[in-house]
Fold:
Amino acid sequence: MTTLTQETPSDRATTFQAVQGNGTEQYSGGTLLVVAYAVLWVVMFAWVALVWRKQRALDSRLADLEGVIQKASKDAPPAK
Structure:
């Protein structure tokens, strides 16, 4: 059987205590900032490229549809 102990406010530390440990797991804030911005730019460029590609496909399809409409209007008999 386990018992739960509750911490009271007086049991908790009220000051910062640095943890001594493995120093290889720490990264500088500047490095993390540069990496975060690099990831953001890569994602944004990929998104813009995807939207640009889809827009070109839509433009091509629209041009094809306009051509079909022009052809159909020329081949249609005149309205009475």
